[in-house]
Amino acid sequence: MDDLIKEIISFRDERDWEQFHNPKDLAISLVLEASELLENFQWKSSEQAIDINFKHIQDELADVLIYSLMLANDLKIDVKEAILSKLEKNKQKYPVEKFKGTSKKYTEIE
Amino acid sequence: MDDLIKEIISFRDERDWEQFHNPKDLAISLVLEASELLENFQWKSSEQAIDINFKHIQDELADVLIYSLMLANDLKIDVKEAILSKLEKNKQKYPVEKFKGTSKKYTEIE
Amino acid sequence: MDDLIKEIISFRDERDWEQFHNPKDLAISLVLEASELLENFQWKSSEQAIDINFKHIQDELADVLIYSLMLANDLKIDVKEAILSKLEKNKQKYPVEKFKGTSKKYTEIE
Amino acid sequence: MDDLIKEIISFRDERDWEQFHNPKDLAISLVLEASELLENFQWKSSEQAIDINFKHIQDELADVLIYSLMLANDLKIDVKEAILSKLEKNKQKYPVEKFKGTSKKYTEIE
What we know:
hydrolase (chains A, B, C, D)
């Protein structure tokens, strides 16, 4: 992961783009890339989308990850730690006994 | 990274949620989480947002990463490979000579 | 408004597109168009964006409205009524005495 | 439509919120509301979503429209004109002969 982040930041530094990359615009960019990923599924079933657009899906997912890792880097967030700590919270929020086999949100279950 | 993906998938398997997690709904979820991340910056400068909402930003970024890794896993996309291959394409699309120090898009530059 | 909706639906009917326009994909499309609108502001201040991209902003905003009115039509939602009823709820949620001159969310104010 | 816009702007003026409502943050808000609308369809078919979440869908769609009309007002965009002019462009982009009965994008058709 650290090597990947280094590659991403060096790509940015070569272009001198850090000056534009404030966290608010990075968060905007993350939404834009996630939308471009979703666009591959518009008017389609999952199967059709993967059939027709697999290469695009892979590229857009990579863009989402690139911006995520950039933002983490700039905010000095440790990616691994952040994920494990959020999974821990999700475990509290969605205990197995209550949420096994249901897609309900925690707000929809008493 | 592989260990993180294992943790995420085991969280899902314990809840028997794979049945709901078709790629189209995962792509939707990715947009929703990216939007929740962005919500922390609404009506605020980057500095104000980080000051007030740092913990939330970290958690939402983790959610974006969790869904990204889940989707990569389900589509059998190698995350590292996908990122490096996309960076390579971006290098072609944004050659240093033309794009150093400018935030223009490749469509805005002749 | 009714005339506008008629124009929009007749555009769709001429192309026989209603078959693809289930509400879930229309909601997806709405997010995609809102993101394309936002893209015009990426890496820019409001002023720069309007200066450079005004025509695009107008077109993307129109697309957001077109999909919104289409979805309202398909779900038999009366647009005027829906807006006025939501404004009423917002007035309850954000009483003038508490929220005048502050950009805080209702969750951030006791 | 003009009356609706007046209601919306008067709601804002009573709260003195115009100071926060720069176009960039309004465009962000539009994405956030469109995402909240879409959230009602997450993990569900259109039918299930409408069955369970109709009231929420109506309210979120109203929020999308409220922000759209606010942004149009602030940028002095005539909503009706913008929609009709965009429909005209879409008619050029998607001529009936080529696009009748297909959900392909114009980039997918030669």
